[in-house]
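Handout, section B. The chain below has 131 residues.
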Amino acid sequence: MSDLVTYGEAASRAVLKRVGRAASRLQERTPLPVDVLESEEEYLVVFDAPGVEARDVTVTAEDGGVSVRLDRFRDYRDGFETLLAGRALSLDGHADLPADAAPGADGTRADLREDGTLHVYVPRGERVAVE
């Protein structure tokens, strides 16, 4: 009977490993959730940024929008073995911005918050009147 138990445990671990990989891949292919807010002076782009440190965040401000990449790392815990590694380690997101946004201008800044969000502030450029 112990061979049957051993086989069952091995099969369970193999299934959990595959499920974890599939969940991780799905997260990596799904863009980060994002909100875009505006004030008179600037746009605020808020990305979900769970489980990262500031050094693990790359923000690219480009014409037309803002892109982010988060590279997370799993901490190993003494006395524990990972059965299911379902959280993605690399996450990407992008937000398109209105035409008057100036993402490359002075004043573009990013702030990683304790609540697991990344705030990217993008100044508004000159508004052009359309006739």
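Note. The two ends are 84 Å apart (CA to CA). Compare this with the example in section A.
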